[in-house]
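1st attempt posting a full record on here, be nice pls
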Amino acid sequence: MIPFELAEPRSLKEAVSLLDADDGAVRPVAGGTALMLMMKAGMFRPARLVALRRVEPEFSAIALAPDGSLRAGALATLATLERAQAVRENFPVIAQTLRTLSNVRVRNVATVGGHLAHADPHMDLPPVLAALGAQVTVVGPAGKRTIAVENLFAGYYETVLRRNELIATLIVPAQGTKRCAYLKVTTRSADDWPALGVAVSIDGQGREVRGVDLFVSAATEKPTRLKAAETVLRGAQADEATLRRAGEAAAGEVEVLADARGSASYKNELVRVYVGRAVRKALGLGDAQGRAA
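the predicted structure (as tokens):
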């Protein structure tokens, strides 16, 4: 690696001041699990890295707010998020998703903010957070702004963040009576990057679907809302015919990408099948393989 400057600010405000909106060679670094690999491979040659490990402790905290929402500092590690009592008791889909997100060595180092800002479309947490209606607060020279996780990603490894902005906090609204699930398809081990991820949050009773938020990832260039499938499900009974129609609608509306984990046609078929399976899992109808109860 070529020499570079390492800055270690003591506050998030100072960290922002050290970034450069016009220079892509100046980057923030938190856990560094992805950035270090890029540097070692010669894909990224920094002029300056702004290390965030010494900023205020509040940005590593995880707590349940009085309104039932979850607030997680961007510098909290994924392992800390996974083990937090507030998450396990109130947002079990997040804790369950994290158990097979990469491996425990990565989760012990990788941070919430870095995970989201990296924008790898194969990551498990973004579609789950999008389905839960989560938001991030972002700080920059002009102050703070709030972005829905659904709108954070602009494309393949791209976000809407400016180069001199940092994710400060993740906010997940109270789940209430909604039922949520995440399913992923891996071609190797359970903690491998997925060929497909499907996340769903359902407001309803029994088989009735009053409201639904449904997202696909890994097979697409970014977490993508399945609007046509939501339309099929919303206001319907989640019987086998409805779930088949939702799967067909999802496969017809989404543009999937081929990669080392599968061809486009294979992934399109996965979308068709796994939308129904994710809904069944959320509603407690049968098992993850789609067999009816």
